[in-house]
Design a protein that fits this description.
By secondary structure, this protein is α/β, with parallel strands linked by helices. The chain has helices at residues 14-21, 35-41, 57-61, 81-86, 99-114, 117-125, 152-164, 173-178, 189-195, 215-218, 238-246, 286-304; strands at residues 2-5, 26-29, 45-50, 68-71, 90-92, 144-148, 167-171, 185-186, 198-201, 226-229, 252-255, 275-277. The chain folds into two domains: 2-97 and 286-305, 3-Layer(aba) Sandwich (Rossmann fold); 99-277, NAD(P)-binding Rossmann-like Domain (Rossmann fold), CATH 3.40.50.720. Strand 4 (68-71), helix 4 (81-86) and strand 5 form a beta-alpha-beta unit. The longest helix has 19 residues, at 286-304.
Length: 316
């Protein structure tokens, strides 16, 4: 039984190897960069473990022994789930491994930007000593955070925001249809943009959310609004965000994810003092990293034992 890791970022695989060896499976660790490389190294593989390289229809249909693709992530937008389903290949992710970490990272970005921490730090280092360098600053209890998508991470964040004193609203048509929650005010996207001092994005990347934050949506925002994205980069149309920041239509942004990663060293966002960028790091703690690796391997183990993956994306 052959399992192939197609690509990875800063990982060791001791735990995965032990798990697979316990059932007689062989783990091959590769660092593929092209579709052809994945096809070549994965011949005979029952399972693929994937990070960032796209797993396309061509790859799936070129691997007749393939039974499962397990993603080192929550999002599976780089896997052709439709093609996998049509070929009776399970796709599995780890939807619950970094809820606390991402919520805390979003909170850190929100607090840093709303409290003007970076601007005040820079002013002190430039020889200034005045609270007015951060003006205007507003009391937290007067500010509203709008959450776009109200899944587990957003709900974790909402509880923290409310404890601090923020008012919280959310937009999520899917949540609204199935899981009414009296503790949150659900509003339309348009109302959320008009009311929010902070807009925090937690939406998955699907057809309906691609570039959902664009020029038209940003035009509804308050001029003092801050946009936070710890979800998926392409949910924001980056050129429109840059224009909104340049022209003062919004006040700032905190971004852990971008349309194209890693960011180009000459990217316009890097020159903006009102933007904080972190390198797609919100998921990370030592504990969440180990949980991700273990649960990804267990998705494969389930299939090797003749069962469905515990975190199957495409149940059939």
């Amino acid at each position: 039984m052959k399992i192939v890791i197609t690509d990875y970022i800063n990982m060791e695989f001791v735990e995965e190897k032990k798990l697979f060896q316990s059932v007689g499976a062989q783990l091959e660790v590769t660092q593929c960069r092209t579709e052809e490389e994945v096809i070549e190294v994965s011949q005979g593989a029952i399972g693929l473990i994937n990070s960032e390289i796209p797993i396309t229809r061509k790859i799936i249909e070129s691997l007749p022994d393939l039974k499962v693709i397990a993603k080192y992530s929550i999002g599976v937008d780089n896997i052709d789930v439709v093609a996998a389903t049509e070929n009776n290949v399970f796709v599995a992710n780890v939807p619950d491994y970094c809820q606390e970490e991402v919520a805390n990272h979003a909170l850190a970005l929100i607090m840093t930007l709303t409290q003007k921490i970076v601007a005040l730090d820079h002013s002190v280092k430039q020889g200034k000593w005045s609270f007015s360098e951060g003006a205007p600053l507003h009391r937290i209890s007067t500010q509203t955070v709008g959450l776009i998508s109200y899944g587990k991470i957003a709900r974790n964040l909402a509880s923290k925001l409310k404890a601090i004193g923020f008012q919280v609203i959310a937009y999520d048509p899917y949540y609204q249809k199935s899981n009414q929650d009296a503790s949150i005010e659900l509003v339309s996207l348009e109302e959320l943009m008009r009311r929010s001092d902070v807009v925090s994005l937690h939406a998955p990347l699907i057809k309906e959310t691609y570039h959902m934050i664009n020029k038209d949506v940003l035009s509804l925002a308050k001029p003092n609004a801050i946009v936070i994205n710890t979800g998926r980069g392409p949910v924001i149309k980056e050129s429109d965000l840059i224009d909104a920041l340049d022209t003062g239509k919004i006040a700032g942004a905190g971004l852990d994810v971008l349309e194209h990663e890693p960011i180009d060293v000459n990217h316009a966002l890097l020159a903006m003092d009102n933007v904080i960028i972190t390198p797609h790091a919100a998921f990370y703690s030592e504990e969440s990293f180990q949980e991700l690796k273990r649960k990804t391997a267990l998705n494969i183990m389930d299939v090797l034992k003749g069962k469905k993956p515990r975190y199957s994306v495409n149940n059939f």
